[in-house]
């Protein structure tokens, strides 16, 4: 969880940070799908529920993101974790990382994140995925932390309700602005990385936006704005052909 800054910290020069989207930016594919796969293997839900979730994910990725699809996907995902123990979720996200996520990380994006750490910047993952999943990825990669979607818990049980909004689209911009205030960060000095035009609110909030594996709309926007563009998908495809 982001910590609040002290009054003395506000007198210090503002630091820079780097904000990374997760799905298709630092990770090949969808973290939520990988989460669902492991949840099914642990019998969090039935095979039927898993394939419904998988189909919704496929449509979400193939046809692109919008608020209606996000709401539908969010409601389905929350219904699947409702009633489960928080302890089980924490064990599950560790398993998701070990069995699936670490095999699908984009090494080039991970290298960019670690370069920022080496240069003294904070590095935050900003994702619509559950906070617990973002925390595990950040911890395993030795990054500063994560901002993710929070699921309500009562007496150690997941209620299936959100705390606040999903961290998606404009909500990412709000989240990094709030983080910048609490951690004395300069967004003007900071960087943001994403593959999706839905993250334009976050990308345009920083001084150094970068498109990574961008969709068509973000590609056009990034070219017009003269932003750096990294397409690791094309590099990987070319390498495989060679």
Characterise the protein shown here.
With 242 residues, the chain is of the alpha/beta class. The protein has a single domain, classed as HAD superfamily/HAD-like (Rossmann fold). Helices cover 50% and strands 17% of the residues. The chain has eleven helices and seven strands. It has helices at residues 7-10, 31-41, 47-63, 67-81, 86-99, 107-118, 131-140, 170-183, 200-203, 216-225, 232-241, and strands spanning 17-20, 122-130, 145-154, 157-163, 191-194, 208-212, 229-230. Strands 4-3-2-1-5-6-7 form a seven-stranded mixed beta sheet. Helix 7 links the parallel strand 2 and strand 3 (145-154). Helix 2 (31-41) runs antiparallel to helix 3 and helix 3 runs antiparallel to helix 4 (67-81). The termini are far apart.
Instruction: Examine the secondary-structure arrangement and name the CATH architecture.
Output: 3-Layer(aba) Sandwich
**Share of helical residues:** 40-55%
Q: Please, what is the average pLDDT?
A: 82
Beta-strand proportion: 15-25%
Q: Please report the number of helical segments.
A: 11
Q: Class, according to the CATH hierarchy?
A: Alpha Beta
